[in-house]
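Posting here for the record, re: magnesium ion.
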Amino acid sequence: MAVKDIEQVGLDTYKFGFHDDIQPVYTSPKGLSEDVVREISRQKDEPAWMLDFRLEALRQFERKSMPTWGADLSRIDFDDIHYYIRPQDRQARSWDDVPEDIKSTFDKLGIPEAERKFLAGVGAQYDSEVVYHSIRDDLEEQGVIFLDMDSGLREHEDIVRDYFGTVIPNGDNKFAALNSAVWSGGSFVYVPEGVRVDIPLQAYFRINAENMGQFERTLIIVEPGAYVHYVEGCTAPVYATDSLHSAVVEIIVKEGGRCRYTTIQNWSTDVFNLVTKRAVAYRDATMEWVDGNLGSKVTMKYPAVYLMEPGAHGEVLSIAFAGEDQHQDAGAKMVHAAPDTSSLITSKSISRKGGRTAYRGYVQVMPEAERCRSNVECDALLIDDRSRSDTYPYMDIEESDVAIQHEATVSKVSDQQLFYLMSRGLTQEQAMAMVVSGFIEPIVKELPMEYAVEMNRLIELQMEGSIG
Amino acid sequence: MTATNGQTTLSIRDLHVSVEDAEILRGVTLDVPAGEVHALMGPNGSGKSTLANALMGHPAYDVTAGQVHFKGRDVLDLETDERARLGMFLAFQYPAEIPGVRVASFLRLALNARRESEISVMAFRRLLLEKMQMLRMDPKFASRYLNEGFSGGEKKRNEILQLAVLEPELAILDETDSGLDIDALRIVADGVNRLRGSDLGVLVITHYQRLLNYIEPDRVHVLIDGRVVESGGKELAERLEAEGYERYGAATTSEDA
Ligand SMILES: Nc1ncnc2c1ncn2[C@@H]1O[C@H](COP(=O)(O)OP(=O)(O)OP(=O)(O)O)[C@@H](O)[C@H]1O
Ligand SMILES: [Mg+2]
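Prediction output follows.
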């Protein structure tokens, strides 16, 4: 089945690289200034506290220096970016109400179909604004809120104000500050106590415009004993110039709650993807980040879990795939701030055609956080000799009664493996894709079936033309 | 060059093969006609696996001279996968481990690679279960990762499972018997015998007469220092079992490449 998909698609290039000619109703002039920030806030008709939050963030952004570690960000030209593009005036609740040209984009990406088949709710963001949003009625009746962040702020200002910017302060890092200044769109999810959302909520992020900066902002609150699985997917057209995607995701998981956040990031290879994701987990709560990074030119992303109370558990499962001219600097951060907390980091990276991956991890155990357990396993697979993989595992352990494990491997696809598979009739590309899919299998098997299929298909597309 | 259907399945002429500039095969000539079972015996390091690997087109094995034809086609300029799709199969002496890839999903892809139209998932599952039953394999193996953590004997049985599912026209069995317990040996031999009599040509590489008691060879060839030094009927294997290779002055590595 898998192989036929490749043939059906018949592409050796980025499948989502098309763009559509949309006339946005508003495009901010290129460059960042107080005027731009004020105009965004004015158009959204925001409360004053949010404007203040934005303006303070802008000052933080200007003060902060660029990160000097990680990937090369020198090509980002902050003056050459549109910070806000509003594609249409109103948000639709039904796909029929989405303007035809925008809808056709999402049709091509298979979103409405996926919604019908296996999702509890869908949000679709196009450039700066969420153009479509829906949630299953029964969930809404149970009090589950799934809105775009702007509507969330309008309709539930009291909740938003309590949590917004509490997990990731507006000056956390340069790109979080940038997002805090110009954020638009993203998701607001609230799951009331004891409510279990049994199938995923999905948000879909699409950059369509050239020289666009997308700065969505997501806030998820999981009340005690509740459960939600949130999935995001991302694509963009291929342009000759660069785009910037800089999201902030804040998650609060309360006592005994569980949240799983899955990302399948497949930006085109001219997108700088610089994302700050962080969760706090309280007593006996579980937070899981499942992070697949296949696209983008540069990704710097280290989902974090702060384990605040005993029994909290954090996990990061990440896959990074770097091809030609790609640099995936991904990892995880676990902060054990209470005794009897546990964390698990599993990272798998694949580099080919001169691509570069890095695992950058940080595990911190605070004083008196006794009996913490942390397990880090990062494996890198190199497809050829030109590619590169690095591991930067930082540990800061201030308590002696802990169990910390770290394991790192770097392997190559061996000639023996390829020969074996090819001797059964698989082409070299099929054989290579098979070894790669086996390599990431421990993570892919954690995904819901539809996403596992999608992930394997994307890997196969990535592997096309990868030989020689 | 006589064969059941008058056509030689595998024909090797004066094959010279080097590994890392050392000549290992120094002019091998051998035919395996369709429907026949041939045994290839010889001391350790004489080049048996080298021949098997070279026939399948392993990139590390450099063919410096000679020809190989299979079903009348010159296969030396074919890629490994093309040879496989033409009907050649090698049961490895040391099968590679492929972590994370399940036996069933791998085999389905391999089977589809050589079929015109794709086999349905259900039909494949039935076929696989049937073959596993024939080889008395626990169905659980279908969902294990390919060769990972398999015992020596399980790996060998898994090779024969692939043979049974893929139904090639030429099977090269490289020491499939070593590592098998007596019951497994009989099961594997039964499996091969069941496929016999069709057009399947078999080249059995082995050190032991025991396997040949179950799979009776039509011909036996002795490989010493990269050359076939003697060929004969099944009694040749019995003699080797009794006398060893001493009469060929063998087990010395050649310096005269
Ligand atoms: N990939 C390789 N690299 C280096 N040397 C090799 C390689 N493959 C084979 N050789 C050498 O070629 C010679 C023949 O090896 P081969 O594996 O063909 O022997 P064999 O007849 O199969 O032996 P055995 O009965 O032990 O399996 C040996 O000296 C071996 O070391
Ligand atoms: Mg051998």
